[in-house]
Amino acid sequence: MLFGRSEKNLHELKNKLKTIFGGEIRLPERKTELQVADIICTATTSDHPVVERSHINDHVHINGIGSFKPSMNEISAEVIKASTLVVDHRESALSEAGDILKAIAQNAIEQHHIHAELGEILSGNKVGRESNDQITIFKSVGNAIQDLVMADYIVKSLV
Question: How far is CA 36 from the centre of its chain?
Fold first, then answer.
């Protein structure tokens, strides 16, 4: 399923993805149809939330890769508050991730609401999802070293 604010852009993206990957791509009529999703990926530059608590279920995982500036905000403070929040890098998230900064400014969360950095989970120092009825969010503002490691992995797997 694809969601977006612009019907024109959604249809263009749907056609591009269908050309590349084939298969069926749905354009739901209402955001509440997100309630059936197990994974949601957001990649917007919105300055107001596009994912609200009423749109999602209690076991969803959200990859938030948009809103990489303090003024941007794609995931509501209510969703952030209800989640186990993992970030790529705490310091960057607390200076750049509008979703988190706005939730803090609204007193929905405090800085310590960040459960872990991705590396802490991957290394086994922190636990990720602990139950099936848990909202989890991975919020990324971009981390060059993680991008390099992933690029290296992909290149090595191709050879």
Answer: 16
151's CB contacts (< 8 A; 6+ apart) are none
pTM over 0.70: yes
Q: Which domains does the chain have, with CATH numbers?
A: 37-158 (3.40.50.720)
| Cα(49)–Cα(37) distance, integer angstroms | 18
- Chain segment 33-82, per-residue pLDDT in tens: 889 889 999 988 999 999 999 999 999 999 999 889 999 999 999 999 99
The H-or-E segment that residue 147 falls in is: helix 144-158
DSSP one-letter code for 125: S
Q: Cα dist. 120→19, 117, 154 in Å?
A: 38, 5, 22
Please give the Cα distance from 73 to 98 (Å, whole number): 5
Longest dimension (CA), the chain: 50
Cα of first residue to Cα of last residue in the chain, in angstroms, is 33
